[in-house]
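Now for a typical sample entry:
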Amino acid sequence: MKVRAFFILNPIIVLMAACMPEDTGVESADQYIQLQSIMPMVRTSPFPSSGKVNINSPHFMWSPVYSKKTGANSYEWDDGFQYRVRISKDREFKDATTISSEVQDWTFFNPHKKLEKGVWYWQYAEVDRQKGQERWSEAIKFEIDGNEREFVTPDPDVFTQRIPMSHPRFLATKDEIGKLNFPEEKKSSFLINMDRKIGEKFPETLIYNDGKVLDRKKKELNDKNYHRYVDKATKEKYRPHVQQAIYFIKAFLITGDQKYEKEVLRRYFYLKEQYNDINKAGLTNDFTKGYYYSLVTNVFDVFYENLEEDERRYMLDILVENQNETYHHFLYYSVTELMSSHKWQHHIRNFFTTSISLLHHTPEAEKWTKYIYDLWTIRAPTGSLDDGAWVAGNGYMGANIESLFVMPFLLSKYSGVDYFEDPWYKNVPAYLFLTSPVGHIAGGFGDNADTKITPTISLVGALNDVKNNGYSQAYIELDEKFGTGYLKSRQTIDKGGNIYWFQNQSLNFDKGEIDSQPLQRARVFRDAGIAAMHTNIREPDENLMLSFRSSPFGVSGHAHACQNTFNIQYGGEPLFFRSGYYSSGLDHHSLQSYRHTRAHNGILVDGIGTSMFADGYGWIPRFIDSENISYVMGDASNAYDGTMARDEHREKGEFWKVDFTPENGFGKPGVKKFRRHVTLLRPDIIVIYDELEAAKPVTWSWLIHSKDTLAQHQDNSLYTENQKGKGLLNLFSSSPLKPTVTDQFYAPAVDWLGNGEKKGMKYTNHWHGKMDSKKSEKVRFLAVIQVVDKSSYSNFHPIARSGNGRYKVGDWTISAQLDPDQPSEFKIVNERELCGISMGREKLVINGLKYKHSKRGSTVIVDGKESGFEEAFDELPSAAIYR
């Protein structure tokens, strides 16, 4: 659920001092979350209910009435009710401060006004459609304390009145035709290309009909998967023809030349016929339908006045029918669902643009427009809260970027309020700069994020035209220097889609000033639960990148069951990196060897991974960054014992004969504690300290993966390399360890849907390392990972080991408490660089000075070259505060 969260309780405390007072040992730095879920898969509780809000005008949401729960995240919603809401400083809702809504279909409300400071109350009513009876909830208290971010948008009536009566309304307005602001060179090149294609011959059919491929697929696949393959292949044939038709619409809007209108209509009637054929053949999928209806909307909006009456009526009828169907599909789940990928990728955008195109032509259009206007304002972007991140991973963030730019652009255009002032939009350039840097794989924590490079750079380029941002500008500069030229290639009218189209239209945004602070090499994005650390991000070939995930969202959308896991790249290439392939959304390989924890650098407990549900959440309590040391701590204590999987997972698992049993890696192993401390010691060492506890003796499996190679180096030591670097892992533990290495997937990778073939990728085996403890209730692990450059012929530091968990690695001295019956603590010191880190109670001694913990169990870093002294206590994620 979208929560506007950027005033955080319990902040990291930074003390610039040489020495700290003695540790009293009374107050603990630790906090723990005992919620079933932080961000429920389907929210059925009212929001806000914690008494805290952080945006003014505040947002209110509640659950619709449902007749029964039909699965882990499935409900039967009752259409027999509408809703009202009221807000007041009077608990009885009788004084002059009371704000009351009209009766409405949906279960969210924005008062569209700033509330004055003080204690407020809100409640909602379920209104019986037949009897008109109102059933009011209890009054829910919240406070406006004056520290909230102000964001007040016009009333929905005002918003709809600002949309012009004349056509078009989406890609441009009537006054803008022939006057759109594109660079002359780009415009000329585009129009020359369009002129060449006028009158070109169309294929006889757009139904996929490659006989050789289809014969092979019939033999390889069952009927259902064969049908799915043909659906997808047909979609891929249909899409570019729709795109060409829309390019001709844009050529008309740029010039006003009737020859382009004539060509648009020729293509429209061809694509209409083809769509009907595809539909009759039963090959229409979600995307093909979306492409067709998008084309119909654009033709209706741009050429409304010139269409034949019969065709205009046909368009209006099918669009209204589709809008009604979509509206009722959205109505309840759009608020209650944590994340629905396709809805937010394109359905909501298409629904909105169709709604404004139909205004004044059908009475329902005004309701639809108001609905989406408030829905987007309250909930979007759904990828995280305010930190600019994307919980489902950067690979599929790319599928959302048109909506992420076009929707706030249009809402800003017609509301007069700058939607790009949202904190999420201010933070997204830094998020992408650090988690999907130029010349690197895009993160690795979600579908396709393990193969794509800078998949969202078009969004960065567009945002850079809207708001001045140092991270955006650095990202673009690095792409020009080291990248593939992808951004430049997308900055054309016929390849840049609607992102480039709108970023070149005039809208008076306040671009603001560029932050004068230097760009960071490490940062935490706490709302989504992602951290990234680098040694030399501006030189990809020399950069060591460490990324980490522990997310309050659990597993939603295209995210994976990978709480408290990490990935390491060197030279922009995977080194110790998650494994598997996106063979499809949910097949045997995807469920068991791609999305499952066993595919990630995490922990299995009796062979069981983290839950594939919102219950399986993690969070990041601590983060510190300094010149020589970056540190993050994740808590996945709640990740293993919640609801095992979403209904969709179970349905697909049944089809693919995947049993959700403990023997297969799904279950509740009784984990009580999993805290992982990850420290990057620049330039070449990573130290990981794990605290693990369960309610019974279990086998703890420490996992490590590599795409290229993995070999046992010595006892409890594994080696890997890529084309540019090499890595060595040494693992120490409180328990004897049994290492195994294999290049076989638990569930073999089969490219049955052609996802790999489309990218020119052959599915080969990856390497998997596992070190099993003996069965125990508690265990500690200490991993020391060294990464060095191949070309410099650097050698790994020998690890000198002494008693009591002390290790010497180069200039670093590491000590860690590996006895699980003792309080957790570790300490790392580099006397040469005058820096160190300590977690626990033991003081740091650097250059003769003593630095002590002000709270028991805190993390302190001393880095004399740059940052002085910093101390971190556990900090709750925003979603656990603003509920």
Q: What stands out?
A: The mean pLDDT is 93. The longest strand covers residues 685-698. The longest helix spans residues 223-255. The chain has 20 helices and 37 strands.
